Sequence to fold (251 residues):
Amino acid sequence: MLLKQSHKRELPSIDSDALERQSAEQILTWGIKNFHPRLALSASFGAPEGMVLIDMMHRLEPTSRIFVLDTGRLHPATLDLIDRIRDRYGKSVEVVMPHGPDVQAMLNEKGMNLFYESVENRKMCCRLRKVEPMRRFVTELDAYVSGLRRDQNVNRLNTPKVELDVANGGLMKLNPLADWGRDQVMDYVKRHQVPTNRLHREGFPSVGCEPCTRAVAPGAPERSGRWWWEEDGSEECGLHVSDEQEGGLGI
Ligand code: SF4
Fold:
């Protein structure tokens, strides 16, 4: 299948079926060749997938770019890991912040821990602290890389290795680890001694914002510690949900 080009960007023609048969390294090599330096890895520093991709991309292109959405509510362990990555690879991590006045207005009106009170409040917080900063940042990119895997939850089952991200303005989104399993990720981490978030060793398979993540029992679904108080929670913050799925809001 040929993906349509964005009307805003000059993107190469893409045969997504052929890319689907490529390995993670091949997808990244293709992405770097076509898009670097207007390509960056979106890393949460709360999941080993992003750390694997940092390592892989750095081996392929030492000037490859990484960015992190600093929501203002990240765990100290996550902030520590950002600095460990800077030291280990000798490169900067681009920190993307929310729009201060918007967050300030939300907190003044709804309170500091508004997300526990309703799903609407939680989505508002995720939108202001994650989704909108991400959209602003990627306007300067032609493509970005994510660590999504199909077996992380039901929302991610159909994740392609390369897709057009319409919700974020029509840039390319590369998901090189789409067909990887957790064991494959952890095997890479071990073989290459990749730094990971220390909370993984304390029962957090996926680390998000401090107030919205908790440890889970061994063997529990990877993202079940996220927004645990929501009975029918999607386990998604809105960054990886299409406009179509959420009625045009992308949250
Ligand atoms: S995960 Fe929680 S604290 Fe972080 S942006 Fe979403 S609702 Fe806000």
